[in-house]
Write a structure and sequence with these properties.
By secondary structure, the protein is α/β, with parallel strands linked by helices. It contains 14 helices and 18 strands.
């Protein structure tokens, strides 16, 4: 597995211009880190450290003459990069570069000015939601589903994604099985934290066949313990609706305060973080009030919820998955979902509100992570422009600015 941005060890809140004693930026200013460095999850919730088999510890790779985009926020610069095993040793200026070039044990790659960048990250990954028809996933045979999921993991890696955070699995163990297969080198894929089926109340689910049902604090605690037993890294709550279902409004919250508090208490007692499908105003506020760690969507956050998020921004990350709204509105017609239908069910109104919400979150210093929430057939996974450019415009960043800092945002989520 290629090293990611987190494989460069750093100390303190700002990274100096020297990397392992070498000026990695050829005279550039200090590396600029973002508000995401202020997020501090409880150390007891640190995910398990996984190692991906396949990279020999004595391997040596030298990239020469590359345009370096180092994911710290500074402008790209020309230089060299040297890697040993899974560790990035030097960035920018490599000592004794001529000696390394002549060493037969060093693989030398001449970039000829092409861009070399850190792997991308995705905060809202569904490897198992692979062909767009969510209602059919529950009945898809486990053998076919496993093959499709393995292909999805490979597609992410081929598209430049090296860090992914599972947002729910269509079958309860499939995410864990794929994660383990990636880690033992059986299949290619990014570093991955696995989830189980998303948990919802009866009469509050989005897609019944891929849901773990629970009503009330006691049953929800039981479901969380079951997820822990099968080996998930985090647990997903489905707290609000989704307009494409046409039966569960995105503005409605289906969880109670008591249920949310119980879920947080049980998951955290077992060292697991929680993420939540929380489009609705009240679901966002419950997440903040009770300590759900990663909040998905948050499209209908109101003024009170925004104040709560700002006051607790060191405890939460928001992954809006804004490209789902954009793609459903403007890119889904070839797959049978027209703009007029998307507008009719409410996606245009939600999209316009979400843009205002996300701009304000960015202005208030709340950590917002790009996250895709797509299937391979409805929105091609390699369409980086939709995810990065659209999110960048919404947050007041250029596409380049978002890509320059995006991988760094995932260090505290994945590691």
């Amino acid at each position: 597995m290629a090293p990611s941005v987190s494989d460069i060890e750093t100390n303190g809140s700002r990274v100096p211009t020297e990397v392992n004693g070498v000026n990695g930026m050829n005279g550039h200013k200090e590396r600029k880190l973002g508000v995401y460095d202020d997020v501090n999850f409880d150390p007891k919730l640190k995910p398990k450290t996984y190692r991906i088999q396949g990279t020999k510890p004595d391997s040596k790779v030298l990239f020469q003459d590359v345009h370096i985009l180092d994911s710290t926020g500074i402008d790209p610069y020309r230089g060299d990069v040297y890697i040993e095993g899974e560790r990035i040793i030097c960035v920018g200026t490599v000592p004794d570069v001529e000696k390394l070039r002549s060493d037969k044990n060093v693989k030398v790659i001449n970039g000829r000015g092409r861009t070399l960048m850190s792997g991308l990250g995705d905060a809202h990954t569904h490897f198992t939601w692979n062909e767009g028809d969510l209602n059919a996933l529950g009945s898809l045979g486990v053998e076919e589903h496993t093959l499709c999921t393995a292909q999805a993991a490979k597609t992410y890696l081929d598209s430049g994604y090296t860090m992914c955070f599972g947002a729910a699995s269509a079958k309860e163990r499939l995410d864990c099985v794929i994660r383990d297969a990636i880690n033992n080198g059986s299949i290619p894929g990014p570093r991955y934290l696995a989830n189980g089926k998303e948990m919802a109340r009866r009469e509050g689910e989005l897609v019944g066949s891929i849901t773990a049902f629970a009503d009330g604090p006691l049953e929800m605690r039981e479901v969380i313990r079951h997820h822990v037993d099968i080996g998930v890294d985090q647990i997903k709550l489905s707290m609000s609706g989704e307009e494409i279902c046409e039966t569960r409004s995105a503005e409605d919250c289906y969880f109670t305060d008591e249920e949310t508090a119980a879920c947080v208490d049980e998951a955290h007692r077992h060292g697991r973080r929680l993420c939540a499908h929380a489009r609705a105003r009240d679901s966002v506020k419950m997440c903040v009030k009770h300590g759900v760690d990663i909040i998905y969507h948050a499209s209908w956050t109101d003024a009170e919820g925004m104040d709560m998020l700002e006051a607790n921004k060191s405890r939460h990350m928001v992954a809006p998955g804004i490209n789902w709204l954009y793609a459903t509105l403007y890119e889904a017609e070839p797959y049978g979902y027209s703009f007029s239908k998307a507008e009719q069910v409410g996606y245009k109104r939600e999209f316009e509100n979400a843009k205002k919400v996300l701009r304000e979150m960015h202005q208030r210093g709340i950590t917002v992570l790009p996250g895709r929430r797509i299937s391979r057939s409805m929105t091609v996974i390699t369409s980086l422009t939709t995810t990065k450019a659209e999110t960048g415009v919404l947050l007041g960043l250029s596409t380049g600015g978002l890509v320059q800092t995006s991988p760094s945002r995932y260090k505290k989520l994945i590691y």
